[in-house]
Amino acid sequence: MKITELSLENYRNIENISLSPCEGVNIIYGENAQGKTNILEAIFLFTGLKSFRSSKDSELVMFGKDFSRIKTQFETSHRKNTSEIKITDRRRASLNGVSLKSPTELMSRFPASLFSPGFMSLIQNGPSERRKFIDSAICQIKPRYAVLLSEYTKLVKQRNAVLKDNEDIKSVRLFLDCINDAFTNLGEEIYRERKEYLDLLLPYVSEIYSGLSSGKEEISFTYLRKGCHGEESLKEIVKNHEKADINAGITLTGPHRDDIEININSVSARSFGSQGQKRSAAIALKLSEAQVIKSITGEEPVILLDDVMSELDTLRQDYILNHIKDRQVFITCCDPGSILRMSEGKTFSIKEGRLK
Fold first, then answer.
1. Whole-number mean pLDDT of the chain?
2. 1-111+299-356 with 121-297: one CATH topology?
3. pTM (2 d.p.)
4. Using the 8-state DSSP alphabet, how is residue 65 labeled?
5. pLDDT at residue 342, as a whole number
């Protein structure tokens, strides 16, 4: 997949810009807070996922303006496409002139893989960050998975609401008997999808991480089911924890509580990994996400690297560039000369929201 045209109007600090990227490496450079990351963020919205920097769509609109608009022309192996996202208090999207019911309908139509400094939280923070990574990745290749997650989340909320009001234990148990089959069936399906995705991901992660560490280290990960002590089904896990759930007033087990343990040389990366190891692991995961997208959809995803290369040594920079050189890539940085050692590519200078 390739983006051929991109335009932003009233988007954060960008009043009006248009750019025609090349098919290879595109460098967007400038000082901090000039609008570099805003361009990557705007591109990422066409995946159908939410912003990686803001939970409120209204924050994407330039101060004092009523709306923002992003337009793109992109080519896939099947056709040429146009898409537009208009943002007020929420996002509205269209594809090839047809209004979509929700921006999530863009999922799988516009494959992209993003790495930003905030992605380090995948390794450093708690389980929710790792669940978010795997769920977002699956949504890009299986749009139905987003519906599955939504239905499961609703059941968790219903379950927790009843557990919280647990004065009448008999009524609580009666409700759980009614809802548990649906809850565990959805949960098992989410678990299977996550496991299947991790199995696809691991060979790519192992290869890329080995390259980043010059073959000195190995990465591995294990899916951890909360409350599981063997090969139990989710139905058995939930039943065994029913009393604990009632006492706690909350659902303690299920995919919403699971984790992915990431190890380097068989040791927890989160607890014992160096900053360099954590960064390399995060980068390997994101580049591998792009490999999986291609293996499933046949489309090369756009690679978005936000202020990443400048923090890597020359060997790691060269390794990454060699793995992305045959795809369309957007890289933000302050000084393009410090990271770009490729003869081909295109540069865009941005200052105060304007391309120079």
1. 92
2. no
3. 0.88
4. -
5. 61
Structure token digits, residue 331 = 């890289």
pLDDT digits (tens, 9 = 90+) for 35-51: 999 999 999 999 998 89
Q: What one-character DSSP code corresponds to residue 195? A: H
DSSP β-ladder status, 346-351 and 25-29? parallel
Amino acid identity at 88: T
pLDDT tens per residue, range 260-286: 999 999 999 999 999 889 989 999 999
Assess contact for 10 and 71: CB atoms under 8 A: no
Q: How far apart are CA 237 and CA 192, in angstroms?
A: 16
Supply φ then ψ for residue 221, to 5 degrees: -145, 155
Rounded-to-integer distance, Cα 187 and Cα 251, Å: 12
Nearest to 222 by CA among 195, 204, 200: 195
CATH (one of 1.20.1050.90, 1.10.3660.10, 3.40.190.10, 2.40.30.60) for 121-297: 1.20.1050.90
Q: CATH assignment of 1-111+299-356, given 3.30.365.10, 3.20.20.370, 3.10.20.90, 3.40.50.300? A: 3.40.50.300
Q: Could you tell me the residue ranges of all domains in the chain?
A: 1-111+299-356, 121-297
Q: Mean pLDDT across the stretch 68-87?
A: 95
Share of the chain above pLDDT 90, in %: 76
Q: In angstroms, what CA-CA distances link 43 with 133, 172, 307, 342?
A: 18, 46, 16, 23
Nearest in space to 196 (alpha carbons), one of 292, 300, 302: 292
